[in-house]
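[Help] Beginner question about ligand-bound structures

Sorry if this is basic. My supervisor gave me a protein sequence and a SMILES string for adenosine-5'-triphosphate and asked me to "get the holo structure". I don't really know what that means in practice or what format the answer should be in. Inputs are pasted below exactly as I got them.
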Amino acid sequence: MTQLKIDHVTKSIDGRNILRIDNLIFKNNGIYGLVGPNGAGKTTLLKCVCGLLVPNAGDIRIDDLILNQETRTDFLKKIGSVFAQSDSIFDLSIKELLEEHYYFFGLTAPKKWSTILENVGLDVSEKQMIGSLSLGMRQRLLLAVAISHTPEILILDEPFNGLDPDGVVLTKNLIEQLSQDKIVIITSHSFADLNDVITDAIVMAKGQTSTRKTIAEINEEFSDGLMGFYHSFINSVQSLN
Ligand SMILES: Nc1ncnc2c1ncn2[C@@H]1O[C@H](COP(=O)(O)OP(=O)(O)OP(=O)(O)O)[C@@H](O)[C@H]1O
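Answer (accepted):
No worries, everyone starts somewhere. Holo just means with the ligand present. The predicted complex, written as structure tokens, is below.
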């Protein structure tokens, strides 16, 4: 059983306090929705977990492994992530992106890259340039890359953005399948999509997080479900100073 623990993590950027997290625990088999208004700090928190930003204080650990400079490589092998797309990958071919990823993680390249693409329903040539793919196809490709090193934790920042209805269904099915032996954390502003897949939700506002609640707990406590939980926490939060 994998556990991701975030303990007393703070982060400030340019002198502004962006995060002040007390305590969060994620366990495998769970699909966690991290929701909150624009600028709440969701991406910043997830970037701290993925080693892309360094917190000012606090611990982030997977089981007994604490994230720090020495453990960074081993820690990051346990995580697959998809963040907002950057056009810096547009000039690479699909094969080049996959090769880079496999090199970074020290993995042996498969005989056929196409198997990895088929996992996410992508029927394209590995020679195709990433810049020539549609937004939704790139989203699928990035998901394929994120799961290719069989991580224990999958972090998806706005995974449904830009997907057509079939892409949304495929992504939800994949998330459910992958959650059987992983922790999956999703941010999304689409509560309808989240309600279809998540087991638990956490609300973020002004850099702080609510307690984690299961969907059953949320529906019992709030007549309007996730939306009620969301507004209730936002209304209770004081600004960081
Ligand atoms: N590189 C940066 N430099 C300065 N400020 C930043 C930087 N990254 C994030 N911030 C600030 O941190 C705060 C939290 O941003 P973050 O992107 O984490 O929010 P979010 O909850 O993911 O928002 P959204 O729902 O819009 O994606 C915002 O006020 C943002 O302006």
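A couple of things worth pointing out: Residues 3-88+153-239 form a domain with the Rossmann fold fold (CATH 3.40.50.300). The mean pLDDT is 91. Feel free to follow up in the thread.
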